[in-house]
Amino acid sequence: MKIQREAFKKQLDNEMDDIKFTKQREVIDRLRQITWKEKARLIWNKEIELPLLPLAAICTVICLSLGVKYFTNYDYISDPMTAKADELVEIDGYVYWKEDLEKTVMRYED
Q1: Which parts pass through the membrane (predicted)?
Q2: Is residue 87 within 8 Å of 98, Cβ to Cβ?
Protein backbone atom coordinates (compact mmCIF):
# COMPACT_ATOMS: atom_id res chain seq x y z
CA MET A 1 0.00 0.00 0.00
CA LYS A 2 2.80 2.41 0.89
CA ILE A 3 4.66 1.60 -2.33
CA GLN A 4 1.49 2.14 -4.33
CA ARG A 5 0.96 5.57 -2.70
CA GLU A 6 4.51 6.61 -3.46
CA ALA A 7 4.06 5.53 -7.07
CA PHE A 8 0.85 7.56 -7.38
CA LYS A 9 2.53 10.57 -5.75
CA LYS A 10 5.51 10.30 -8.11
CA GLN A 11 3.21 10.04 -11.14
CA LEU A 12 1.13 13.01 -9.92
CA ASP A 13 4.27 15.11 -9.35
CA ASN A 14 5.50 14.31 -12.87
CA GLU A 15 2.14 15.27 -14.42
CA MET A 16 1.79 18.47 -12.37
CA ASP A 17 5.42 19.56 -12.79
CA ASP A 18 4.59 22.19 -15.43
CA ILE A 19 1.65 23.68 -13.51
CA LYS A 20 2.44 26.57 -11.14
CA PHE A 21 -0.08 27.78 -8.57
CA THR A 22 0.54 31.50 -8.04
CA LYS A 23 -2.45 32.66 -5.98
CA GLN A 24 -1.81 30.67 -2.81
CA ARG A 25 -2.03 33.71 -0.55
CA GLU A 26 -5.47 34.72 -1.88
CA VAL A 27 -6.89 31.25 -1.37
CA ILE A 28 -5.51 31.01 2.15
CA ASP A 29 -6.89 34.46 2.99
CA ARG A 30 -10.35 33.43 1.80
CA LEU A 31 -10.34 30.32 3.97
CA ARG A 32 -10.32 32.24 7.24
CA GLN A 33 -12.53 35.10 8.38
CA ILE A 34 -11.18 38.64 8.42
CA THR A 35 -10.80 40.08 11.93
CA TRP A 36 -11.99 43.56 12.87
CA LYS A 37 -8.39 44.77 13.07
CA GLU A 38 -7.79 43.71 9.48
CA LYS A 39 -11.04 45.38 8.39
CA ALA A 40 -9.98 48.60 10.11
CA ARG A 41 -6.57 48.40 8.48
CA LEU A 42 -8.20 47.94 5.07
CA ILE A 43 -10.41 50.98 5.63
CA TRP A 44 -7.57 53.24 6.82
CA ASN A 45 -5.23 52.06 4.08
CA LYS A 46 -7.25 53.60 1.24
CA GLU A 47 -5.91 56.39 -0.88
CA ILE A 48 -8.23 59.30 -1.52
CA GLU A 49 -7.87 61.47 -4.58
CA LEU A 50 -9.44 64.90 -4.36
CA PRO A 51 -9.64 67.00 -7.51
CA LEU A 52 -8.27 70.45 -6.84
CA LEU A 53 -10.66 72.63 -8.84
CA PRO A 54 -13.99 71.36 -7.38
CA LEU A 55 -12.50 71.30 -3.87
CA ALA A 56 -11.31 74.89 -4.20
CA ALA A 57 -14.72 75.94 -5.56
CA ILE A 58 -16.55 74.30 -2.64
CA CYS A 59 -14.24 75.95 -0.08
CA THR A 60 -14.74 79.33 -1.76
CA VAL A 61 -18.52 78.99 -1.71
CA ILE A 62 -18.49 78.01 1.97
CA CYS A 63 -16.21 80.92 2.93
CA LEU A 64 -18.31 83.40 0.96
CA SER A 65 -21.56 82.15 2.48
CA LEU A 66 -20.11 82.45 5.99
CA GLY A 67 -18.84 85.94 5.18
CA VAL A 68 -22.20 87.04 3.83
CA LYS A 69 -23.95 85.64 6.89
CA TYR A 70 -21.49 87.44 9.20
CA PHE A 71 -21.94 90.79 7.50
CA THR A 72 -25.72 90.51 7.22
CA ASN A 73 -26.04 89.78 10.95
CA TYR A 74 -24.32 93.05 11.87
CA ASP A 75 -26.04 95.26 9.31
CA TYR A 76 -28.99 95.82 11.64
CA ILE A 77 -26.94 98.29 13.73
CA SER A 78 -26.77 100.80 10.89
CA ASP A 79 -30.51 100.50 10.20
CA PRO A 80 -32.19 103.63 11.68
CA MET A 81 -35.49 101.83 12.39
CA THR A 82 -33.90 99.24 14.66
CA ALA A 83 -31.34 101.63 16.10
CA LYS A 84 -34.12 103.48 17.94
CA ALA A 85 -35.21 100.30 19.65
CA ASP A 86 -31.68 99.72 20.91
CA GLU A 87 -31.32 103.09 22.64
CA LEU A 88 -30.63 103.20 26.36
CA VAL A 89 -32.11 105.80 28.69
CA GLU A 90 -30.65 106.68 32.10
CA ILE A 91 -33.00 107.88 34.82
CA ASP A 92 -31.75 108.50 38.39
CA GLY A 93 -28.71 106.28 37.85
CA TYR A 94 -30.74 103.41 36.41
CA VAL A 95 -30.43 102.38 32.77
CA TYR A 96 -33.50 101.26 30.78
CA TRP A 97 -34.18 100.26 27.22
CA LYS A 98 -36.05 103.14 25.63
CA GLU A 99 -38.69 100.86 24.11
CA ASP A 100 -39.38 99.06 27.41
CA LEU A 101 -39.56 102.37 29.26
CA GLU A 102 -42.08 103.75 26.77
CA LYS A 103 -44.26 100.62 27.07
CA THR A 104 -44.23 100.83 30.86
CA VAL A 105 -45.03 104.57 30.88
CA MET A 106 -47.88 104.05 28.39
CA ARG A 107 -49.32 101.24 30.52
CA TYR A 108 -49.38 103.39 33.69
CA GLU A 109 -50.68 106.49 31.92
CA ASP A 110 -53.83 104.71 30.71
Answers
A1: 50-71
A2: yes
